[in-house]
Design brief:
about 70 residues, about 0% helix, mainly beta, about 60% strand, globular, four-stranded antiparallel beta sheet
């Protein structure tokens, strides 16, 4: 699990998180509040693109590497 936290004075109360695989397929969508846990257990290991939106506006886009859990 990954903890999601929003920092800053103008941070949104809630965001929509969308995860895409390298082929552009949407593999996960979740609405999150600050302090929420993101459960990635249902997606296989690999490289993904994570996008955060608030009120249909892109806030951030990051690469996410999910590695094998031991």
């Amino acid at each position: 699990k990954v903890k999601i936290e929003f920092r800053g004075e103008n941070s949104p109360q809630q965001v929509q998180l969308i995860v895409h695989d390298l082929l552009g397929r949407q593999v996960l969508t979740q609405n999150l509040r600050s302090g929420s846990d993101l459960d990635l257990s249902q997606i296989p290991q690999g490289l993904y693109q994570l996008s955060l939106y608030s009120q249909n506006q892109l806030l951030a886009r990051r690469k996410l590497l999910k590695s094998k859990q031991e």
